[in-house]
Amino acid sequence: MYLTPQHILLAGASGLTGEHLLDRLLNEPTVTRVLAPSRKPLAEHPRLENPVGDPAVLLPQLSGQVDIAFCCLGTTIKKAGSEEAFRAVDLDMVVAFAKRAREMGARHLIVISAIGADPKSSVFYNRVKGEMEQALKAQDWPQLTIVRPSLLLGERVEPRLAEQLAGPLSRLIPGKYHGIEVCELARAMWRLALEEQDGVRVVESDELRKLGK
């Protein structure tokens, strides 16, 4: 069954994926309102509401009915400055955003995780992503879609050296570890938003690439 979500809540709209997803949402004729809180102002649009400030302060102040929520929040340990600061964004902030979205009436959450997410992983990054997935499942969403892209391919405002070096190689790797263009990921997330099915769905990168073509 396919839906036509009209009121959307988006976190991470100023990031690489969030930026592409926001552009797609604002160009969809069925979308009447996108509520996208951010630390820095976004480009104005008649259907965009953009509260600006500290996410911890903004979340309780958000209002209005929401049909669906997208979470594109994420950082790196290098940018965050420490493992604790990384966890505060990729786990705590994601969970808090999801909780607020549910309070605002959203029945479907689509969240970006990562390949290898596992709460028992020996790799810190994968472990935090796994803990995040686990926490969201515990919120008992009517519909929860977890997307696990591989290396994102696209131009960032602040380039990441590791991604620049790994990008060409990731294009040669088959299956779910093959790099994914960020525009494909945004298209795939929108297509997933239109599908209605109960429970939790985990979508790996190879399926995301097919959906985003």
TrEMBL record:
GO terms of molecular function: NAD binding; oxidoreductase activity, acting on the aldehyde or oxo group of donors, NAD or NADP as acceptor
Pfam families in UniProt: NAD_binding_10
Gene3D superfamilies to which the protein is assigned, alphabetical: NAD(P)-binding Rossmann-like Domain (3.40.50.720)
Domain Semialdehyde dehydrogenase NAD-binding: 7-106
Protein's name in the database: Oxidoreductase
Organism ancestry: Bacteria, Pseudomonadati, Pseudomonadota, Gammaproteobacteria, Pseudomonadales
